[in-house]
Amino acid sequence: MKKTTVFDCNIVHFPRLQNRAGNITAVQNGIELPFDLKRVYYLYDIPGGEDRGAHAHLRLEQMIIAASGSFDVTIDDGRNKKTVQLNRPFFGLHVLPGMWRDISNFSSGAICLVLASELYDTTDYIRTYEEYLNYVK
Ligand code: TYD
Questions:
Q1: Could you read off the pLDDT of 31-51 as tens digits, one per residue?
Q2: What distance in angstroms lies between residue 18's CA and the mean position of ligand 1's atoms?
């Protein structure tokens, strides 16, 4: 079977309905979202200079969205790395299972919205980069 790489993790452009009173973006299961949604979580009040992530997931698939502000997501498949700046609420980065990820350079007031394919599960995490490299080898 072909291994998933960072090049399979794409930016998705969600529809944006523009109105003089502001914009709206809707993300629907099975339509804009390429997996079944089981969990939503968001990171906020992130102190300047802090990084998040630094782990991989075995089964979890995610759509990462900058609901407000901006940040950089670096994904790594053990061979290739790709850094994407998310800075608009109508873009999502689709992160497939098995990617090491780091989220950094949060702007002040940034909100990192994550749509996730599984419930929270501590056994789904690879927590060290060394363990990750053994896993992808
Ligand atoms: P963690 O996944 O390590 O956060 P990050 O990768 O953003 O640095 O989670 C941080 C804490 O939050 C940890 O104690 C577990 C808890 N948590 C939940 O309880 N439910 C969730 O859905 C998530 C993502 C985290």
A1: 999 999 999 999 999 999 999
A2: 33
